[in-house]
Structure formats: structure tokens, C-alpha cells
Specification:
By secondary structure, the protein is of the alpha/beta class. It has a single domain (2-78, 132-312), classed as Phosphatidylinositol (PI) phosphodiesterase (TIM Barrel, Alpha-Beta Barrel), CATH 3.20.20. The chain contains 14 helices and nine strands. The protein has helices at residues 2-18, 47-55, 89-92, 101-104, 111-116, 133-140, 159-169, 173-179, 189-198, 214-224, 238-247, 260-269, 279-286, 294-312; strands at 31-34, 60-67, 73-75, 145-150, 182-186, 204-208, 230-233, 251-252, 273-276. Strands 1, 2, 3, 4, 5, 6, 7, 8 and 9 form a nine-stranded mixed β-sheet that branches. Strand 1 (31-34), helix 2 and strand 2 (60-67) form a beta-alpha-beta unit. Helix 1 (2-18) crosses helix 12 and helix 10 (214-224) crosses helix 11. 42% of the residues are buried. Bound molecules: SN-glycerol-3-phosphate (G3P) and calcium ion. SN-glycerol-3-phosphate (G3P) is lined by residues 35, 64, 77, 149, 185, 207, 232, 255, 275.
């Protein structure tokens, strides 16, 4: 029965896609964000995962930032190395913040995935390294969109300033402001407020991991709209949030969404994009409505500017 409902919904999406131009230009974009790359198929936050996400149609690739003891921004979800890093215990266990980049670079962050997912294991995942943010900018340059999260920014020395300096070095800051080539996300409001104070033109996404109570929702969204362009939430909160967020010109990006049936229902509910471990599945659900990378980001930025203008009257 559920399968039938899914088929019916997918058919609806297909027919909708069929009546819009191939670019999907008649409908607002739904951005496909590769959560830690294509982490449903490859070890998260590795070059293998990012390459695959882009091949699979992700419009954005997502990075979680940690800071090494010698002040380098590296891309890893956890504060500690224990879950995904393998190698010498001295280098590859414990807090990232207590290791130098040289230590971190000795660790293998692919083998754990092969062990955990024998059905998806690949020999080339063995020996994958933790990338620095700079290495990603060097590899992908201005060809892709980045969705970067400041993780534990309260304990990472000048994480925000270091991020902005790298955006400048790779000439991504203006492209971020103008066309959302880089979106910066955080659970930490102070971190985003700090970035906003440093550069109010940068597009920021406030993450929230709990369903906000209704009376508090409007007030919290009012506050978020003073520094951010969007709200990243768990999918369960979508019905309560979309209308209120859109009324404030905030885009809504839930995470992480992997079942196609949930993707369809969130698109129907008005989500402006979503984080997914399986970007190929979201690409298939979007069909002709799927955009392509830079074009989708530019359009989302344009619609946001138009929303603000209309709101200002
Ligand atoms: O960035 C959205 C989502 O990634 C937040 O969850 O724990 O995967 O960083 P997490
Ligand atoms: Ca994240």
C-alpha cells in the first residue's frame, strides 16, 4: 500500500516535471545538498564521497569544520577521530583539536566504511584522508557550491575568521554573497551572528535540532531572519515551519532525508532543498525539476532578494 502511494506520488512529481521547462525554471528551485558528500555510498567527508555526490547530481557538497591544534580547518563531522579514523592511536584517536594537521593526515578515514558496509565496500576507500577545507577549494574551485558548517565554534579559535580568510583566498566570498555559491550553516547562533557582523552580505543558515514550540517559533524566526537567509531543521518540524519561515523570506532545508517518499512529501510541504546521503535518489525524485549546481544556487539567491524586496514593499 505504501509502495503504491509512493508510486502515485512519484508519478505526480513526474507529471509536474513534464509541464515545466527542462531547467525547472517555472518552479522555485529545490536544492540537492550532498550530506557529507554522498555518505550513503562512500565514507563521509572524503574526496571519494564528494566526487560521487557531484556525479550523482548534488547541487551543494556539505562540509563540517573542525580545527586542528596548529590552526588548520579540516573537514570531519565529529569532534573526535574515534568513529571514522584508523591508524596510530596517538594520531588517530581523541579530539581533533589536540592533533596537528600532520598527525591527522596519517589517519585513514575510509576503512571504517568498508567494515561497516561490506555491500558498499570499495578498495579505493582504504587510505582516504581527512581533507582540509583548503584542499577542497583547490580541488573543486568555483565549479561547485559549498555548504559549510561551523562545528563547535565556541571552542575553535577564530574559526569564523579563518573560514572567511579562505573564502577570500579562493575568491569565493563575493560569489557566496551574490549567488549563494557558499552557504554557511551552524547550530550556534553566536557563530552565525559573528559572521554576520563580519560580513552582513554572506548567506547563513541557522540549524535547529529540536521542534520549536509554536509560540516560540515566530519569535525565533524573527530573530533568525535578522542574520540568516534560511533555517535547517529536522523533517518532523516542516509543517509548522515552512509558512512561517517563508513569510520571513527564510528558505527551509531539512536533513538528512534519504527515503524518496519523505523527499516527495517534503517537497510537497514546500521545502526549498534538503540534505541527503543519497543525492542520486533526490535527483531522480526531482526529475526535470532538478537544476544543476551553480544555476540552482544563483536562482535561489535571486528569489531570496526578490522576496526581501517584495516584503520591504
Ligand atoms: O548540516 C545539517 C546537518 O548536517 C546537521 O547535522 O550532525 O549531520 O552535522 P550533522
Ligand atoms: Ca553538518
Amino acid at each position: 500500500m505504501r509502495r503504491l502511494a509512493l508510486v502515485a506520488r512519484l508519478a505526480l512529481v513526474s507529471s509536474l516535471a513534464a509541464v515545466v521547462p527542462a531547467s525547472g525554471a517555472a518552479l522555485p528551485p529545490v536544492v540537492n545538498i550532498g550530506h557529507r558528500g554522498a555518505s550513503g555510498y562512500a565514507p563521509e567527508h572524503t574526496l571519494a564521497s564528494y566526487d560521487l555526490a557531484l556525479q550523482m547530481g548534488a547541487d551543494y557538497i556539505e562540509q563540517d569544520l573542525q580545527l586542528t591544534s596548529d590552526g588548520v580547518l579540516v573537514v570531519l563531522h565529529d569532534e573526535t577521530l574515534d568513529r571514522t579514523a584508523r591508524g596510530e592511536a596517538e594520531n588517530c584517536t581523541g579530539l581533533v583539536s589536540s592533533k596537528t594537521l600532520a598527525q591527522i593526515k596519517t589517519c585513514d578515514v575510509g576503512s571504517w566504511f568498508n567494515d561497516a558496509h561490506p555491500d558498499l565496500a570499495r578498495p579505493d576507500y582504504v587510505g582516504q584522508r581527512i581533507p582540509t577545507l583548503e584542499e577542497l577549494f583547490q580541488r573543486y574551485g568555483k565549479r561547485v557550491n559549498y555548504y559549510i558548517e561551523t562545528k563547535s565554534p565556541e571552542t575553535a579559535d577564530h574559526m569564523e575568521e579563518r573560514l572567511l580568510a579562505l573564502l577570500d583566498k579562493y575568491r569565493l566570498r563575493t560569489l557566496s554573497s551574490r549567488s549563494w555559491q557558499v552557504l554557511i550553516q551552524s547550530f550556534s547562533a553566536p557563530s552565525l551572528e559573528k559572521i554576520h557582523a563580519l560580513d552582513p552580505s554572506l548567506p547563513l543558515i541557522q540549524l535547529a535540532s529540536f521542534p520549536p514550540a509554536s509560540p516560540e517559533l515566530e519569535a525565533s524566526l524573527d530573530t533568525i531572519a535578522t542574520y540568516a537567509v534560511g533555517y535547517g531543521i529536522l523533517p518532523i518540524t516542516i509543517p509548522a515551519v515552512v509558512a512561517a519561515a517563508h513569510a520571513r523570506c527564510l528558505v527551509v532545508h531539512p536533513w538528512p532525508i534519504d527515503p524518496p517518499s519523505v523527499m516527495v512529501s517534503l517537497i510537497d510541504a514546500g521545502a526549498d532543498g534538503m540534505f541527503t546521503d543519497v543525492p542520486d535518489k533526490l535527483d531522480a525524485v526531482l526529475g526535470k525539476r532538478a537544476g544543476r549546481g551553480r544555476q540552482v544556487a544563483r536562482r535561489a539567491a535571486l528569489l531570496h532578494r526578490q522576496c526581501l524586496k517584495a516584503k520591504a514593499g
